[in-house]
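Morning. Coffee machine broken again, so started the prediction first thing and wrote up yesterday's gels while waiting. Chain of 187 residues, entered below exactly as on the submission form.
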Amino acid sequence: MPHINLLPWREELRRERQRQFINIAVGAAILMIGIIALTHIQIDGMINAQNARNSFLQDQITRVNAEIKEIESLEKEKQALLARMKIIQELQGSRSEIVHLFDELARIIPEQVYLIKLDRTGHEVHLEGVADSNEDISEFMRRLNASPWFTNPKLTVIETGKKPYEDDSWFKLTVNLTGGKVEEEEK
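Came back before lunch.
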């Protein structure tokens, strides 16, 4: 029987398969490196695009915040102007009020009552005066209460024999101004 040596053939086949395996492994490694590089480039591009969008949005937010501050300052100016306008309207409306106050006091004050001092604080009028008797003060308070310009008279002090009004009754009273609203409602 003849003796045939098949070893070199198998060894060559084994070497060929090893080369193919190495070629496939190197090709797969190169392909993976390429895929990783492309993925990295794509992700980097997406990050750059998102950063550009973020900076654009940040610029817009900054601009809008500046506009909001400007609007807030304009709103404050508007409120200040409205407050001034309200004060001016109140002053215009109450301009003739002092004339009516003195006119009404002159009409309703009894002959035996004399006013020494008159102070006004907002809608309150503080009166100080002298009367011949306590009845005259009561009559004055009734007339104040019946007046369309005054309401709620309150006697705070009444003294008899106070210098220099020793024979008379000295008094202090407070009354609220209505601004003639009762009179206006009746018209």
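Residues 145 and 151 are 5 Å apart (CA to CA). Going to sketch it on the whiteboard this afternoon.
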